[in-house]
Design brief:
This protein is an alpha+beta fold. The N terminus is likely disordered. The chain has six helices and four strands. Strands 1-2-4-3 form a four-stranded antiparallel beta sheet. The longest helix is centred in the N-terminal third of the chain and has 16 residues. It has one domain.
Length: about 160
């Protein structure tokens, strides 16, 4: 009986700790367009995966137009964390968001108005307002993240105060 009460207490505590999605950083993307959950990207961030032209980004359209990278996967950490650290950034989701804002402000400023960034410590997440924007993001930013020397050139010029590290 005591074990049952203990398990019930744990279950109640876990349920109470769950939080709703963070509505901050809204940039015009309507909440109804946002997916109800984060897409699982594990296994799809693999650098040997030649079927994802937007690598390391995974584009998903299950209830919204989501762009995601699970940055704590082995492959992503091995490839990108040393670069972020080389230029004084933590490599967290906030670092990725800050760097991507910098890249887009330079490369395609109009695209920024169509994206809602919602990074977390272990992941980069953004919602696009339509499929065209989502794919354009993947093409522009994905190409830069695949080309390490080009990515480094953006890291060198990024304003550290805008990285929210």
């Amino acid at each position: 009986m005591l074990k049952l009460l203990f398990l019930f207490g744990i279950a109640s505590l876990i349920e109470a700790c769950e939080t709703p999605p963070n509505p901050r950083h809204q940039t015009g993307v309507q909440p109804a367009e946002r997916p109800a959950h984060r897409p699982r990207t594990s296994g799809r961030n693999d650098s040997t995966n030649k079927t994802n032209p937007y690598y390391p980004f995974v584009l998903s359209s299950d209830g919204g137009y989501t762009i995601a990278v699970e940055i704590e996967t082995k492959d992503i950490m091995a490839r990108y964390t040393p670069l972020f650290e080389k230029y004084g950034f933590s490599g967290s989701g906030e670092s990725w968001a800050g760097l991507i804002r910098h890249i887009l402000a330079t490369k395609d400023p109009a695209l920024l108005g169509h994206l809602d960034f919602d990074p977390e410590a272990g992941g980069f997440f953004a919602a696009a307002d339509n499929e065209k924007t989502q794919k354009e993001f993947g093409e522009v930013v994905g190409r830069i993240f695949q080309d390490i020397p080009t990515l480094e050139s953006y890291m060198k010029t990024a304003d550290k105060s805008e990285m929210n590290d």
